[in-house]
Design goal:
about 110 residues, alpha+beta, Ubiquitin-like (UB roll), five-stranded mixed β-sheet, 2 helices, about 15% helix, about 25% strand, binds FE2/S2 (inorganic) cluster
């Protein structure tokens, strides 16, 4: 189990306990915590409704694959800190990650 923090627009952080051994991706975990993520593509890196901004810990994440990069490139509000949470599988290296949910702001 690791901790991932969700930062609100007001700068408040909510800590989530995230399992690393159950095979869930981060989008699925955020949905389980009842964040309003549509995930219309089902985690195929196509819909971008699981778009997050990584505020701290980006260096501990695996590289994006080509599909994730293509989808992020097509978004008007993505930048170098953007990721698709469906493409991230929580691991011990991601403990302490701080993210903001971007899709909710669109
Ligand atoms: Fe569709 Fe992540 S769930 S891009």
């Amino acid at each position: 189990m690791i901790n991932i923090f969700i930062e609100s627009d007001l700068g408040e952080r909510q800590a989530l306990e995230v399992p690393t051994d159950m095979g869930f991706n981060l989008m699925e975990i955020l949905k389980a915590y009842e964040y309003d993520i549509q995930a219309t593509c089902g985690g195929m890196a196509l819909c971008a409704t699981c778009h997050i901004e990584v505020l701290e810990g980006k260096e501990n994440l695996p590289e994006s694959n080509d599909q994730e990069l293509d989808t992020l490139d097509a978004l008007p509000n993505s930048d170098s800190n953007s990721r698709l949470s469906c493409q991230l599988r929580p691991s011990d290296e991601m403990d302490g990650l701080v993210i903001r949910l971007k899709a909710l702001q669109e």
